[in-house]
From TrEMBL:
Residues 37-272, 275-529 form the ABC transporter domain. The keyword Transmembrane does not apply. It holds the Pfam family ABC_tran. This is Ribose import ATP-binding protein RbsA. The keyword Chaperone does not apply. PROSITE patterns: ABC_TRANSPORTER_1 (PS00211), ABC_TRANSPORTER_2 (PS50893). The gene is rbsA_5.
Amino acid sequence: MNDRTSDRAVADTAPPWGGAVSVGSREAAVRALLPVVEASGVTKRYGSTAALADVSLRVMAGESHALVGRNGAGKSTLVSILTGLRKPDEGTVRFNGESAPALADRDAWRERVACVYQHSTIIRDLTVAENLFINRQPRRRGVIDWPTMRRDARALLDHWRIDVREDARAGDLTVEARQLVEIARALSYGARFIILDEPTAQLDGEEIKRLFRRIDELQREGVTFLFISHHLQEVYEICQAVTVLRDARHIVSASVAELPREKLIEAMTGERGGLNVADAAARAALPANAPLALEVRGLTGRDYHDVSFTLKRGEVVGLTGATSSGRTSVGEAIAGLTAQRSGEIRVKGAPLTPGDVPAALASGVGCVPKDRHHEGLVLTQSVAENASMTIAGLLGRFGFAPPAKKHAFGKRMIESLGIVAQGPSHVVSGLSGGNQQKVVMARALASNPDVLVLIDPTAGVDVKSKEALLSVVDRVREEGKAVLVVSSELDDLRTCDRVLVMFRGEVVAEKAAGWQDHELIASIEGVDLHEE
């Protein structure tokens, strides 16, 4: 698909539902040479944090342009600016050579750009026709003109060759069909620039192929796409150009044909961050006869399939993959936060009850969950109360721990983990993000688990807190505990004796300690570095 040129004709006028017609005027020819969207020197700050720093992007008419970067690179912030949800602190955005509309002029933004998000904005309980014309239904004598709306919906779907019934309930459609309905809705406003945010995350192989064929057809009709994906192989399948962001900065923009996979991954990763963490590559190998702490056999759930691996005492194993890989769901199943559909989890040889957190704790599994605010902490309670939450029954009779014992335990955790707080009575909502995460770690360690599951353990914390949290991993490993690190952050994974890579719900690779950044990321992104 990469032999398409980027100077396809752009529609100058369109019927009410957004169809393209060819135009031979000089004005249209000049406009086709202008970028559909051009961001220049865009900077966006939140307090002292730069979410974007002097970022530029140029997308030409009729092309599919990839926007890639690791988590936190600035992609979401840039999309929010390109769609008029945020205003840049510095820099400009232009559409077809003209300045972007005022943020308040939502109709003008809809005529220029639309975003089809990974999580659909389609209202499931409405029909396709109602979704297509929501908040702008044709009216007759003050009431909705249902026959006209259904007729216009049918005309719109037929024009863009989207094979769904206009009277179908949107919730009954496939994910693929809902995405196409969202694209049709965007086109009906007049937008010819569509942002696709992880469009294949919930699709299977055949659905992805059909979606890519449809994108190709729409490009030939003058529609331009900004394609955001963690699966770099898809960039080479569908896109003609690519822009890489890293650490909130623009790194490179180039033709896909001129940017080999190795160079693309190098642009995404850059130099190693330099965290002072223990690298498992320098560690002596575990004895071959080390006892097993965790066995996962044939685990299958909502977004993962037939996952199997083992974890020895004193071993640290990483489980990584893109956001949609299923890695988080596997970690949550092992911790008892969710139940698998089939398969078995054993801790020290004993089966674990699916979806039962108290049973997991009793079996010797501790967990730092992904979302500390909703799953890891009670923000209105103190450090001591949060840290001792999983062991209240051990500190006192009938599950009621005396305040003095809670206070003493909280003090020990503050000293052990370097929690910066006024004392054990300090309410956790008043702590920094890094210190809140240390409290979550304290709670996970309180029950003295045999298996410690860490899900994105350093997300959203500062460098020093990252170093402190990852040093805990090395410490508990030396104590003979098994640690499963579920993360896509490279520094989190350097502490691991081996890293299992998940892609589209399955374990597809295993990397021993000492892996190279570009090799691991290639596996995460589903790229074959040796493909010609």
